Structures are given as structure tokens and as C-alpha cells.
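Hey team,

Filing this mostly as a record. A colleague (T.K.) asked me to run one chain through the structure pipeline before their review meeting, and I want the input and output archived in the tracker in case anyone asks later how it was produced. No errors, nothing strange. Just documentation.

Input sequence:
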Amino acid sequence: MIKYLSIAVLTLAISTPVFAEKEFADHTQMMNHGDGHLMDMTGGMVMGQNTDVLPGGCDKIAATKEITVHAGHKYAEKFPGRMFAFDVQEYQFEPCTKLTVNFINDDSVRHQWMMHGLPKYLYPKGMFHLEVTGPGKVTGTLIFPPGDKTYLVHCDIAQHMEKGMKGQLKIGKGDGDLPSIPGVTAYVIQDDYSDKKSDETLSDTVVEEFTEMKNKVVGNDSFFSGLTIIGLAIGLILAPLLARKFKGMSAGEIFVYLVGLVKQLVDIVVKVISWLINLVKKK
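Output structure:
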């Protein structure tokens, strides 16, 4: 018994580090893979780093700035319905600014801070990208191009942006605001936390109009029952004719013919229903 108990204690002791919270990692020893791409084997990455090459149209570096961006679940608490967020949702800098970004991930999952739409002659992937897996910090630098433009900054991990991890960065005056930036601009699809449903949906309207049309045109269900019987009778009558029609045809040819026939019938039915609905509305 003591033997088995010792084995259990030893196993637990060995396993404990697996469940321990990951320590904060400062990713300062990354390998340079060229084209401004730096990464290490512990979850840190920088793409699009540019510390000294001026973009076209910039005679000099207009300003040198440094910011620290935090990413994590706790920053979404002030935005109902969001899961992740940056601590800041909007930035603004002069054109031709040299910006160093210290990106800190406060969660135990992977997060990113990235910009798209940068000139590809200078940024080969058209982006500036910072990434950290788990709690940690990574630092990268870029130089903004000239002109007034608004860039999206976001986390590109699946569903992280949709759940709130995005912001906008304006160079100069920017060229407008981006939609659905938490706390800055209105959401394209507004959140609704009420427990009541809309009074009338599109499907309700269609059903109501069709029911009204049926009551005015036919009065009761006997007409539709009659249509069903007539349809079956027509099918029985046409069956021998179709059998002769299909004689000698391949399976593929029969299939094409039937698809065309069904399409024609659907078109006729749609036109009849539309005509009946218009007729009822005029009354």
C-alpha cells in the first residue's frame, strides 16, 4: 500500500508543473529571418519590422514615438458582449513617424497586434505584425508612410477580432473612421441583450400575406386538397408519355431534361403566386 501511495505522490509532483500558470516571457532574443521577420521558439514574433528605411515621400523621420499596448480578456469588460480587447482602441500619429510598439499579452492564449495595408515595396507582406503566445512581451518598430490614412489594428487569431480585439490607427488626419471599433464607432450589427422578440419577422409577414390571399381567393382548404388530387392525376396521365419520351435517352440526358422541366414548373408556380398576391393586395 505504501508503495502505491509513494508512486501516486511522485506522479503528482511530476505533473504539477504542467498545470502551473505560465510565467511572463520577455521575448528579447528572437532570431532575424530577414525582411523584418523575427521570431523565437517560445511564441514571440515580429513581422514587417523597419527601423531605418524611409518610405517614399518621407524626407525625414517626423517624430519618434513609443507606445505600450496591452491585450487581454480583462480589457473587454467595459464593452458588453466582447470577449477580448486592447487596452486602447484608437491611436493617432504624424505621417513619417517612427513608432516602437511594446506589445504585452496579459492572457494565457495567443494574441496579435497587426496593421494591414502598408506599402508592399517597403513591407513585403503589406503588414506590421506583433505576436505573443501566453503572458509575455514583444517589441517591434516601423516607420509610417506619408499621407492621411486610417489603418485597422487587430488580432488575427480566429474570432478574436470579432470578439472585440481591434482598434484604429490614424496617420495624419486619417481618412475616416472604421466601423465596429469598441467604444469608438457604432457596431455594424448592434448587440441586443433584451429578452423580447421583434413583433413581426419577415417570415411572419410572408405567412400572413399568403394566408390572407388563400382565404380571399379560395375560402377554405378544399381547393388545395383538390389541387393535390388534380396534380396526382396529371402525374399518372403524363407517366406513360414521359416513359416514351425517355426511351433511348441516357441517364445523363434524362437528368438534364428533368432539371429543365422542374425549373420551368417552378418559374410558372412563382409567377402564379406573385400574381395572386398582387391580386389580393389590390383588393
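Quick notes for T.K.: The chain has two domains: 22-171, 202-282. The longest strand covers residues 63-72.
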